[in-house]
Amino acid sequence: MAVLLLFLFGMSISAQENETVASKGLFRTTLTFATGYMPANKLNNLYLTGNIEYYVDDRISLRGDGMYFFNSMNGDKTLKQNHSIYSGAAYHFAKKQFDPFIGLQTGLAYTQRGIMAQGVAAGATAYNPLISPIAGFNYYAPKWFHLFINARYNVGKHLADDSIVPLNELSFSFGLGFNIK
Amino acid sequence: MIRINCRILIALLVFCAFTVNAQKEGGQFSLGVRNTTSLFTDAGSPGTGFGGQFRIRLGKRVNTDWFTDYLTTDLNGLGYRRDGHIGWSVLFYLGKNPLQSKKFSPFVAAGHCFDYTKVYSLIDAQYKDRWSSAVQLGLGTHYNLSERFDATLMAQYMNHLGSDLHSHIKDENGVKHLEIEKHEGFGLEGHILLTLSLNYRLGNLWGR
To answer: With bands split at pLDDT 50, 70 and 90, how would you rate the model's confidence at A142?
Structure first.
């Protein structure tokens, strides 16, 4: 937390006060880890996640995301695979360095049920549509870098030949992103 | 009934093509992504869909949507249904000056699509599928967040024109399973599709 506050302080004193960084023509990208919670299965999941985003307007950006599933952190084997890709747009309320946003993406998940007991093979794979609203904020330094926090809620189901598993999940990610204009 | 539907669609298309093609707003090309929810199917629960579309505007009050959807539906935990749609719709704007920034642009939509449907029963490990075509008719509105970007909400009734494929739950000795029925010949099966899409105008294919 102390590091985060120092980082924010450092960015704020070095930024130009009257310029809104998040505006038309800005391109940003990130790569970080995300954690997610699936309430129906009580699963805590870990992902590698990244996105690319382009501001087509001072308020609107087009954005694509990807999430690579590592594992469920609580040792649960309900899911063996749960990778996903997303595309959509976000609406920004940017002012100076601070850039809160909301957005909506459509997603596709590649999923597979895990090995639930000894002698039982992993389940069939399936491609499943997702509806995925997002919200968060970016905090920009004058050049190149920004801090971001992103929340996502997925709505969908793993519907395969051998099992049905809800994929509804609230996930969070934060980190340092790269931006250029 | 079906012949009447097709005639209405064709008439609408011909009307559109001949009345608006020359207008200066024609040629705008947009690209978008969409989420579609399928309601009032025999599944009893809504299906969710992933898809995309592009738009080619033919004139001031007429646009066209060329879309594809992939929908999955949970059939009460006993199986699933998968639907694939690829098709087009004509959008006729109800307002005189549609697609203005920060305003709603309501429209009537009508079109046609080709589709694939698969219904799978988990307990029986069996499925039935079919290829068919469908016609759709609906209402919707864009909200133009900027000159080039809009969010669109649309409700359509899609009527499949082909063999009838449906499922129902059967209880045998206390064990529920999904019974799938496919009736060859010509059937009418419909559902409501709610679509929310985000679209960005990339440029013009012709005109200004």
So the answer is: confident
Say which DSSP state A95 is in. Answer: B
- Give the torsion sign (CA, B159, B161, B164, B167): negative
Instruction: Compute the residue count for chain B.
Output: 208
Q: Which two tokens stand for residue A56?
A: 């087509």
Structure tokens at A136: 């968060």
Lowest mean pLDDT among A36-45, B44-53, B108-117, B186-195: B186-195
All structural domains of chain B with their residue ranges: 2-204
Fold of the CATH domain B2-204: Porin (2.40.160)
| Interface confidence (ipTM) of the complex | 0.81
Q: How many CA atoms lie within 13 A of B56 on its CB side?
A: 11
Cβ–Cβ < 8 Å for A27, A179? yes
Beta bridge partners of A129: A108
Q: How close is the nearest chain B Cα to the Cα of A31, in Å?
A: 23
The answer to whether B77 contacts A59, with C-beta atoms less than 8 Å apart, is: no
The pTM of the full predicted model, rounded to 2 decimals, is: 0.84
User: Among B146, B64, B29, B70, which Cα is nearest to A62's?
Assistant: B146
Q: Which residues of B touch A160 (CB under 8 A)?
A: 80
For domain A2-180, say whether CATH 2.40.160.20 is its number. yes
Residue among A104, A130, A159 whose CB faces B50 most closely: A130
User: Could you tell me the residue ranges of all domains in chain A?
Assistant: 2-180
